[in-house]
Design a protein that fits this description.
Largest sheet of chain B: 3 strands, antiparallel
Mean pLDDT of chain B: 83
Low-confidence stretches of chain A: none
CATH topology of the domain at 238-433 in chain B: MetI-like fold
Mean pLDDT of chain A: 83
Shape of chain B: flat
Radius of gyration of chain B: 26 Å
Order of helices and strands of chain A: HHHHHHHHHHHHHH
CATH class of the domain at 238-433 in chain B: Mainly Alpha
Number of strands of chain B: 5
Strand content of chain B: under 5%
Structural class of chain A: mainly alpha
Structural class of chain B: mainly alpha
Shape of chain A: globular
Strand content of chain A: under 5%
Distance between the termini of chain B: 43 Å
Oligomer: heterodimer
Largest sheet of chain A: none
Strand order of the largest sheet of chain B: 1-2-3
Order of helices and strands of chain B: EHHHEEHHEEHHHHHHHHHHHH
CATH architecture of the domain at 238-433 in chain B: Orthogonal Bundle
Chain lengths: ~325, ~475
């Protein structure tokens, strides 16, 4: 088990390196720092001095891979590739193009992101599982048919509609919650309620259908027939046998997403002005802050890899048949 | 009309249609390809969805034949027009100055006007084109609208009746002499094809189109937006953008997924390792962020080479193509993984082993034995991904990394309309129009995709729920 873990962690390193090389190529080779400076400074007739100054302030004036002026190790470390990508491995995120410290920003903004993402995930699981279990149990009934119609309908509506419609109906017309914003501590609950509800609606249709398929597949297995033959009640078969076995694929699917919760929901956060990491990323994209986008890409891939690792581990915990070697 | 202009995306769309026709001709001659499609066409829901999809395809195709209008004849000013623009001429040219509600005769906001006595008063001015044919809109408008709706609906119904008659004659050819067996077979759904669904949806569609066509020359059916453009026209123009993103993206991602997936599964060893490394790396970058990074870089590139993109349409077109490419490159990984797993299974089956033993070379085995057997996966993924991509366009456009702001798209409509709900009274029509068009297309695509998936592979489960839905 521990040998497996170590191997997987070592395997993650080349992947992260690959991610960094891709982002590095995208940000510095396809377009040179000069282009970025010209775009940031806005003017088409911007002077070379201004560009050089902009680059020097942000450390973009280093050579790409090899510093010939320096001596010793500095030849490799005083380069753009090292400072902009390899340093990320030590969680030293540096400064954003706007001059703020990215690390501090990340710490501050993690909380609000989680305040939205965790309730959404829990509610999502609770509602979707219950709904799917009920319609799988009553399959072929009128309830099942109508649920299918509603789920396909919910899947076909753009997430933007839930956000805008929710803001208009619940916040503006009924005045139940504020339209957008955030507060610290428990006072945040008022602001979080609507985004959570919207987050629930966006993925509900797809999830219910997905879980229903898993339940139905599980219900067709031999052990279910065996349990029935022994005379167990329908409810008991559903809740103790089917539910527990169907939870294996469902929960492991959720585990992949767990680390990514930190990154927050991009669009929901931006619409509701939640100061989380999602809106941080969007602001960075809109302000064309390359340093922040680069950091978020790195963090996102790191968390995804952690998620994959957790998935493997959760298989071992949830399903005794699986053994990692 | 003027000289024909072919934008890059037009060419791509034509290639796509040609490929579809080619596939259809090919499939007709092979029973194993026909059978699942017959299964699809047996389902009433799938047939109804297909009718709606066809309507969208027709609009998109009409909007993809561009020409440069002759100078002076049209409000061309150096831009290209499409056949759809030409057909919707009145909608395009009948602009107002600002917002107006659907079917309104007066503007949405008051303006200061000099009245007959020379005094300045605040009134809701009459629209230049909306209901301009009425002398006294207050009294005549509802009657006029009612009359036109009735006429349009009647026209639509007549067309639908003609189609129904044609269907009856068609069925009668197979159901023996006389029309009554054919009619009863149709009515009771015993004709072997869901005619009721086909005719029902077509009738509804024709009635809606008839009403729209009757009203559109005289009113702004869905109102006008901030700068006075007709919302219905914008929504129709956006169809092409949505369809292009939904289909071109998959087209771009297919070569990567097919080539690398099958190669990894068949050759194994170092090839497999390299492909696995590549797709794990790519898929570990959160999709939205990779798209954002690529879009940012595209912006920088466009700013640097501003001189090459002087034609507005060409610039927007290239941006759309680039967006499709970026989406395609970020989304091939899941299909690639599926194809690799399927190829791993297939290469151990006897017919592949037999082909190897007979000395067939690898390219021959891949082409003749492996590719045809993974095609159903490609088909299912293509159809399933379509709706997610249409929805993704709107979300991406909202974060400024989607299509060009000058291009008509539902994302742009929603983006510019989201603040209008806060006005008093709310400006809801732009938003509702974009949402309804998008909903119709995505719903039809989802329903059709379900039928295709069930017909081609009822036990395919790995595809899972929409990955796009989770990103927002």
């Amino acid at each position: 088990m521990s040998a497996y873990l170590i191997r997987r962690l070592l395997y993650a390193l080349p992947i992260l390196l690959g991610v960094n090389i891709i982002t590095f190529l995208l940000f510095f080779v396809v377009n040179t720092p000069d282009d970025m400076a010209r775009m940031q400074l806005g003017d088409r007739r911007v002077t070379q001095e201004a560009i050089d100054k902009w680059k020097a302030e942000r450390g973009y004036d280093r050579p790409l891979f090899w510093q010939t002026d320096a001596s010793g190790v500095a030849k490799a470390t005083d380069t753009l590739f090292f400072t902009s990508t390899l340093q990320l491995f030590s969680f030293d995120f540096g400064k954003s193009d706007g001059g703020r410290d990215i690390g501090t920003d990340l710490k501050q903004r993690m909380g609000p992101s989680l305040a939205i993402a965790v309730p959404v995930l829990l509610l999502q699981l609770g509602v979707a599982l219950t709904w799917a279990l009920v319609i799988a149990w009553l399959r072929g009934s009128r309830l099942d048919t109508w649920s299918a119609v509603i789920c396909v309908g919910m899947m076909s509506i753009s997430g933007l509609f839930y956000i805008i419609g929710g803001q208009y109906l619940i916040a503006k017309l009924w005045r139940l919650v504020p339209i957008s914003g955030y507060d610290s501590g428990l006072a945040a609950a008022r602001f979080v309620a609507l985004p959570v509800l919207v987050g629930l609606c966006i993925a509900l249709g797809a999830n219910v259908r997905w879980y229903r398929t898993i339940f139905l597949e599980e219900m067709g297995r031999e052990y279910v027939r065996m349990a029935r033959a022994k005379g167990l009640s329908d409810a008991r078969v559903m809740f103790t046998h089917v539910l527990r076995n169907a939870l294996i694929p469902i929960l492991t699917g959720v585990v992949v997403l767990l680390p990514l919760l930190f990154l927050g929901a991009l669009i929901t956060e931006a619409f509701f002005a939640i100061p989380g990491l999602g809106s941080y990323t969007i602001d960075a994209i809109q302000a064309q802050d390359f340093a922040i986008v680069r950091t978020m890409v790195f963090l996102g891939s790191l968390l995804y890899i952690v998620g994959l690792l957790l998935t493997d581990l959760s298989y071992v915990i949830a399903d005794p048949r699986v053994r990692l070697v | 009309m003027g000289s024909l202009v072919i934008l890059t995306t037009d060419a791509c769309l034509c290639a796509l249609v040609a490929a579809l026709v080619g596939y259809w001709l090919h499939a007709r001659r092979h029973e194993h390809l026909c059978a699942p499609w017959r299964e699809v066409w047996r389902r009433p829901v799938a047939v109804g969805a297909a009718v709606v999809l066809c309507a969208f395809v027709v609009v998109a195709l009409l909007d993809s034949v561009h020409f440069e209008p002759r100078a002076g004849t049209d409000r061309g000013d150096g831009n290209v027009l499409s056949v759809l623009d030409h057909a919707l001429g009145p909608l395009r040219t009948h602009g107002e100055t600002t917002y107006s509600a659907p079917l309104a005769a007066h503007a949405y906001s008051r303006e200061s006007v000099l009245d007959v006595k020379g005094e300045l008063t605040r009134v809701y001015p009459r629209l230049t084109h909306g209901a301009a044919h009425l002398a006294d809109p207050g009294r005549e408008r509802s009657a006029d609208i009612g009359r036109r709706v009735a006429a349009g609906a009647a026209g639509g119904l007549l067309a639908a009746l003609a189609l129904t008659a044609a269907a009856v004659l068609w069925v009668a050819r197979r159901h023996g002499p006389g029309l009554s067996p054919a009619v009863s077979a149709l009515l009771h759904g015993r004709a072997g094809f869901p005619w009721r669904s086909l005719l029902g949806v077509t009738t509804a569609l024709l009635v809606v189109v008839g009403i729209g066509a009757a009203l559109a020359p005289y009113y702004h059916v869905l109102g006008t937006d901030k700068v006075g453009n007709d919302v219905l026209y914008q929504a129709l123009k956006s169809v092409r953008t949505g369809m292009l993103i939904g289909s071109l993206t998959t087209l771009i991602s297919l070569p990567f997924a097919l080539g690398l997936g099958v190669a990894a599964g068949y050759f194994q060893g170092p090839v497999d390792d390299a492909v696995q490394y590549l797709y794990t790396t790519l898929s570990s970058i959160p999709g939205v962020l990779l798209i954002a990074a690529a879009a940012l870089m595209l912006d920088v590139y466009m700013t640097r080479h501003a001189a090459e993109f002087d034609l507005l349409a060409a610039r927007a077109d290239l941006r759309l193509l680039a967006l499709c490419a970026i989406l395609g490159i970020t989304s091939w990984t899941s299909l690639c993984r599926l194809l690799r797993a399927e190829t791993l299974k297939l290469r151990e089956i006897e017919f592949v082993v037999a082909a190897q033993a007979l000395g067939v070379r690898a390219p021959g085995i891949v082409r003749r034995h492996l590719l045809p057997n993974v095609m159903h996966l490609v088909m299912i993924t293509t159809v399933l991904d379509f709706s997610g991509l249409v929805l993704a366009e709107a979300a991406l456009t909202y974060i400024d990394i989607g299509v060009d702001p000058s291009m008509d798209s539902w994302g742009n409509m929603i983006n510019s309309a989201r603040l209008e709900l806060a006005r008093e009274p709310a400006v809801w029509w732009s938003l509702v129009a974009a949402m309804s068009f998008m909903f119709a297309l995505v719903l039809a695509a989802n329903l059709f995709a379900d039928a295709v998936r069930d017909a081609f592979d009822p036990r395919l489960r790995e595809l899972g729920p929409d990955a796009e839905a989770r990103q927002t």
